[in-house]
Amino acid sequence: MTDAIEVTYRILSYLPLEQAAEAIAGEQTTGTFTKVAGETPELHRRHRAQVLGITPLAEDLSAALPGARGRETGTLRGGLVRIGYPLVNSGPSLTRMLAFISGNLYELSELAGIKLLDIDFPDEFGVAYPPAPHGVTGTRTLVGRPSGVLLGTIVKPNIGLAAPDYHRVVRELGLAGLDFIKDDEVNADCPPTPLRDRVPQIIRALDDVESETGRRPLYAFNISDEVDHMLESAAYVEEAGGKCVMVNTALVGIPALCAVRRHTDLVIHGHLAGFAAASRHPNLGMGFGAFQKLTRFAGVDHLHVGGFRSKFFVEDKETAANINAVRTPLLGGRECLPVISSAQSAGTAPTTWQHTGTDDLLVLAGGGILGHPGGPAAGARSMRQAWEAVAAGVPLQEAAGQHSELAAALAHFG
Predict the structure, then answer these.
(1) Residue 409's Cα: distance from chain center in Å?
(2) What is the tens place of the pLDDT at every residue in 138-181?
(3) Which of 149, 153, 158 has the alpha carbon at shortest distance from 188?
(4) Dihedral angle sign, alpha carbons of residues 160, 162, 163, 164
(5) What's the alpha-carbon Rg for the chain, to the nearest Å?
(6) What is the CB neighbour count within 10 angstroms for residue 163?
(7) What is the tens place of the pLDDT at every residue in 289-321?
(8) pLDDT tens digits for range 170-213
(9) Are 217 and 209 in contact (CB under 8 A)?
(10) What is the percent of the chain where pLDDT is above 70?
(11) Residue 71: count of CB within 10 angstroms of its CB
């Protein structure tokens, strides 16, 4: 289908899949529950969505949504449904498009389950949304690490530190050789230490690190908030000398993320806090594959993807698929740096390498660095030692014989 936004859904229905798919196509474009005046064949031809394909599923189809029509007499069926939405309906606008592809369809009683899995965009979106300015290459340039894995951490405690504490903590972490440090997702412009109190302390710490080492880590300041406040915060960070801001992409929404990108050329570090509300259930919401495309068009340079051997629900195979999705070119480009986090330590480096085969990654270790028995500096060194070993094909236990920090990390974290 030309000039269309093509969307793939995973659906469940007690009705024939063809009937359920047509209900989506009609409700989300020209239709309602009955015929109305003006609903001409020409209008349908130009504006109604089209069902492009249906692939039945033979896997487990349990956990149907409540209120689905046909439950009493029908057989539960599942399928991958591909629907083309005419570009003319929304134009190349992410926000307008979302009303069509992810609007009232979740309420349809014809459906016992629906999850938006993927979106294929027409070229017009590439013109309307320029690529993010930094991505993998730009981030490497900013931190002075042209090759090798990028390593970072999160300031902990995640909230409650006084402003001077940020100078001490960030200076120590920067001197340990980390490439990247960030605020926690809950710590934006919050009352315990407002952004304008801690930014000068952090910038001063980065200045100290650069003066002593010749390298300057990238710090992501969390500006997640209402749109007008985010724009003010981004401008303040830039004026103060910051190079990167963090946005909780799922919580502020795609339109707000677009607004931040239009108003700044800073690196945007995309966090996934809150996304599991839409993604965790297999029969409802939106999958990562679709969401990561939305955020990349909206302008993120980095995007969280989960973690291997994570403390969260995501399994390793899903994290690997997320990384592959983020690294796959979008309309021929839009490179984005995958960010691995959640219970990472030196011991997770071999698993990460095995699943990805690349070091074009930003690996964040909070407790895995700050909780190292030798302190944060030793924790940072253990991460670097682990990644240098796996990249060289050296088993971690063998490398640990040469590095006390790595040995301590493996003994402590596993």
Answers:
(1) 28
(2) 999 999 999 999 999 999 888 889 999 999 999 999 999 999 99
(3) 158
(4) negative
(5) 24
(6) 16
(7) 999 999 999 999 999 999 998 877 888 999 999
(8) 999 999 999 999 999 999 999 999 999 999 999 999 999 999 99
(9) yes
(10) 98
(11) 14
Question: pTM value?
Answer: 0.95
pLDDT in tens, 68-78: 999 888 899 99
pLDDT band at 2 (very low <50, low <70, confident <90, very high): low
Whose CA is closest to 180, among 170, 188, 190, 166? 170
- Name which of 24, 381, 355 is nearest 365 in CA terms: 381
Joined tokens for residue 183: 């605020």
Coil, strand or helix at 120: strand
Render the burial of 317-327: b for 16+ CB within 10 Å, e for the rest.
ebbbbbbebbb
- Provide the Cα torsion 268, 270, 274, 278; round to 10°: 120
- Beta carbons of 17 and 112 less than 8 angstroms apart: no
How many angstroms separate the CA atoms of 177 and 180, rounded? 9
Distances from the Cα of 296 to the Cα of 58, 134, 330, angstroms: 33, 12, 8
pLDDT of residue 393: 95
Say whether the peptide bond before residue 157 is cis (omega within 30 degrees of 0): yes
Is 27 within 8 Å of 110 (Cβ atoms)?
no
8 Å CB contact between 181 and 217? yes
Provide the 10 A C-beta neighbour count for residue 156.
Answer: 16
Q: Report the sign of the C-alpha dihedral through residues 373, 374, 376, 379, in that order.
A: negative
CB 26 within 8 A of CB 48: yes
Cβ atoms of residues 154 and 46 within 8 Å: no
The predicted structure's pLDDT at residue 34: 64
Shortest CA distance to 341 belongs to which of 189, 180, 201, 146? Answer: 180
Distance between CA atoms of residues 231 and 195, nearest Å: 13
251-267 confidence digits (pLDDT tens):
999 999 999 999 999 99
Distance CA 292, CA 279 (A): 12
Helix and strand totals (H; E) in the chain:
19, 13
Residue with tokens 């951490």: 153
